[in-house]
Amino acid sequence: MGKGGSSKDTSNIAHHKGTPSPVRNRRGQKGTPGPGGNRGDRLIEERIHDPYKTKKKLPEPTICPECQALFQQGRWTWAEIPPNANQELCPACQRIRDRVPAGFLTLSGAFFQEHREEIINLIRNKEESEKAQHPLKRIMDIEEQEGETVITFTEVHLPRGIGEALNRAYEGEIDYQYADQTSILRVRWHR
Ligand SMILES: [Zn+2]
């Protein structure tokens, strides 16, 4: 267990929906001035405010006891586990344990509802292929909220990539929001 992303829909992180978060950069518009500039791309690249980023220098090799990801040469990978590895939860498993998603993808609309299974499968497949390369890229949960489907993620690149993939495959409307002072990304796709 613990690979992230159960196969069934769950609703056990509903307490996140009320999280207040000052938001800017809606559709790339200029937001309120803030430290570090307000370019969302740069925020994603630097992830300077991410409390879940591997901050201290972990001894290498370190193994995550939950998902068995291996930290070596400065990054988390899937690899054969060497004997006597240090143990520490990887950032993805920390987020899953704390139920603190980094990314949100909200799906809505009549077209989505008609093609829900196909679209969710596309998203799951995308997660599987990304996670195979990058252990920290995972879906946390898929839940229904007031007629919308909300998917939560352990990091921000995956929901962004999935949003772009949905837009390529189906068009529709897409919107990205970056929360201020954090590295949280909220993507909405509607069709
Ligand atoms: Zn882990």
From TrEMBL:
Protein name: ATPase
Start and end residues of each stretch annotated as Disordered: 1-57
Superkingdom classification of source: Bacteria
Annotated Basic residues bias: 14-29
Naturally occurring in which organism (per UniProt): Nitrosococcus wardiae
Taxonomic classification: Bacteria, Pseudomonadati, Pseudomonadota, Gammaproteobacteria, Chromatiales
Composition-biased stretches (Basic and acidic residues): 39-57
